[in-house]
Amino acid sequence: MATLLSTPRDGVPPLLHIPEQFREAAAALASGQGPVAVDTERASGFRYDDRAFLVQLRRRGVGTLLIDPEGYREEFTAAFAPVLGGHDWVIHAAASDLPSLAWLGLHPGRIFDTELAGRLAGFDHVNLAAMIGTVFDLRLEKGHGAEDWSKRPLPADWLIYAALDVELLLELAEAMAELLDAQGKLEWAEEEFEYIRAIHADITGPPEPSWRSTKGVATLHRPEQLVVARELWMIREAIAVDEDRAVSRILPNKVLVEIARRPPGSARELGRVRGFPARRKSAATFWYEAVERALESDPATWPTRPRMERVLPSRQTWANSYPASYDLLQRVRESIEELAAEIEVPTENILRPATLRTAVWAATDGGQIRTSDELTDLLRDHGARDWQIELTYPLFTDVLFR
User: Fold this and answer.
1) Does residue 112 sit in the same domain as residue 243?
2) Which residues form the HRDC domain (predicted)?
3) Among candidate residues 284, 381, 380, 402, the one with its CA nearest the CA of residue 392
């Protein structure tokens, strides 16, 4: 049975939260050796954005640092960017942490993503606790990942959890690098890591929010639906920013879209929309008045559904109207699935499904590519890495260019 690791080996480090402590910690970090293990804890389910409320760092010769940047974010960046910027990082599930770190002005030189390493190595479960258990036969004390990390003071057991997230991250990266090397996959992993680093390299802040990008809004077609959705979104956004609250805690996307889809005729009707957060009696009236304002506005100002230029046919249209090329798509997909099983890499890591569909369509009824060289260029233009092209190119050509 795996041994429980319930507390950091060197004890729980203090929470650093003032500029003087940042400067001292950064100086200590600079004196360490090797890459830096990096993690964050965020509160997107509670706060307006996905900024980091806790940053965990660990380096050999230094130990673990727990840092609270809230309130002194500029000072945090001034202290740690010169030390961490351009350095080698070890990080688990990099795509989830790199944006919030970039908002703090922290950008790695190179990364080693232990979660992605687990996927490429063929692990069945790639969450950190599962990988620590598999590699080291240790069981992490877990259970606080979904907490409100903006809460202050942070409870002691939360700090233990946070410290354990980087406790063995450096050793895990070393073990995974050895395993990937033995499997002949280390170069693949390095290409993947660089791709992830590069697509986050230019991030300086949160993306600009847009009502049209709200999940579900694309299913609305009529102008009266869209004007209601826009009005509800704008009000929700203003409240969320002003109160620093997650939009889901004000009016969930699903509810917003459902109200817009069938604009209610009264506050009472609106309050009966499934999932509506009727915590206050006045809430239904408040949001119904917003619906009324939207529908009473000048129709000339109502938004219309943007014309979507469909590059690919829908699955049903493709299967029904272009059966020959759809059969080729299925054959290439099956070949990739067989390859995935053989090399123990998930199919989506070998090639994104969207890229697969685009390539087959372009080489058949889409008429965009006619040679195998053009196929290579298309795959690369759609973000496929060299190792992915090397593996999938023969599978495409066997089916498409015989």
Assistant:
1) no
2) 222-301
3) 380
